[in-house]
Amino acid sequence: MEIEVTKWRAMNDGNLVGFADMLINGLVEVRGCALRKGKGGSLWVAVPSRKYDDEQGNTKWVGHVGFPDDSMYHEFQEKSVKAISQQDNAERFSADDVPF
User: Fold this and answer.
1) Beta 43-46 vs 49-53: how paired, if at all?
2) Which helix (H) or strand (E) element contains residue 31?
3) Cα-atom radius of gyration of the chain, to the nearest Å?
4) How far apart are CA 74 and CA 26, in angstroms?
5) Other C-beta atoms within 10 Å of 77: how many?
6) Please, are residues 35 and 58 in contact by the beta-carbon 8 Å criterion?
């Protein structure tokens, strides 16, 4: 899986580090991915999503982008964080900070 960051905007708002648009394998651009900092400083990428209420009235979120299995999801996380870390105005961090 090849990931290229086509647009990056650093932010500093709670656990939000910034937003990125990413081109995956030169075929699909996913716009508006959020780079977030988890507990302990680990970094992860949230794909765009929408919220909904389940049958019990609980608020849930569903991503607009899915992955066929956990290994693909983990690969996306690792390579996305690494690609964002290479941006000129990215917060300095290591791809080793990915918790997966």
Assistant:
1) unpaired
2) strand 28-37
3) 14
4) 19
5) 18
6) no
Q: What type of residue sits at position 12?
A: N
Asked if residue 54 has pLDDT above 50, the reply is yes
Matching residue, tokens 């970094």: 43
Q: What is the mean pLDDT of residues 73-89?
A: 91
Query: Tokens for 67?
Result: 């992955």
pLDDT digits (tens, 9 = 90+) for 6-35: 999 998 888 999 999 999 999 999 999 999
* Joined tokens for residue 37: 């900092």
CB under 8 Å to 70, separation ≥6 — which residues? none
* pLDDT for residue 41: 84
Amino acid at 74: H
